[in-house]
Design brief:
With 280 residues, the chain is of the alpha+beta class. The chain has a single domain, classed as Deoxyribonuclease I, Chain A, CATH 3.60.10.10. The protein is 23% helix and 26% strand. The protein has six helices and twelve strands. The strands form two sheets. It has a six-stranded mixed β-sheet with strand order 3-4-2-1-12-11. Strand 1, helix 2 and strand 2 form a beta-alpha-beta unit. The two termini are 30 Å apart.
Amino acid sequence: MKRLIFITLILVSNLISAQNIRIITYNIRYNNPGDGINAWPNRSQQVAALLEFHQADIFGLQEALIGQIQDINKQLPHMKWVGVGRDDGKEAGEFSPLFYNSKKFKALKSGWFWLSQTPEKPGLGWDAACNRICTWLLLEADKKDQQFMVFNTHFDHQGTKARTESAKLILQKIKELNRDNLPVILTGDFNLTPEQEPISVITKELKDSRSISKDAPYGPAGTFNGFKFDSPLKERIDYVFVNNLVEVKQYGVLSDSKDQRYPSDHLPVFVNFELRKEKK
């Protein structure tokens, strides 16, 4: 009888120690004054409020200009961020930044690389129309034995070869950087629908969080709305991929709106996950 009680206590202890982590990937649409009523000053507060309301522990943004990053950081001061502008490796051009809750996580290492044949410096890759970048972060959770890596990116919108080669490059970089076989999460706007080849390249090594969520996927399938409130929301181009050390509890596409307007021309993708330890 005593032995049974001991086993029960171990199981309860393991259950309590599991930490749910909430991550969001969100293309926030760059600050374009030509967007009129949908220009950034009219939706900055709504974007920050969405991220805060859904209690994102980590979020990866796409199309974020430095001023937009600063706006969000002012509204969410508990969040720290890493990243550089894709055009000069400093502040020029769009970022693919990673934000994390500094009260819950410690950043151990961070970096970035360009999606090109010369990933160590700014430049166009293959047949891409724009410079593209991937930002990465090694985080440690409250419990010192819980470390994991997050990658965030934005694939080119035109280059067919660039998107395929970018997928291969990111997988290669994950292998190079993740020497300790830690849990990995890859977020981003991939400008690709699920049936296209580069997504298949990625899912040979990582899993689409939507397909492995313990709970049924929540919200619409599509993630691009084009600022149209009557959009059918069928075009899915934003993803969260994970390796086999990440257990996806919940997956959702968040269609939050205000006054029949979306905060961005994309919908954010939300994932609630737990970290697994490597089996030895």
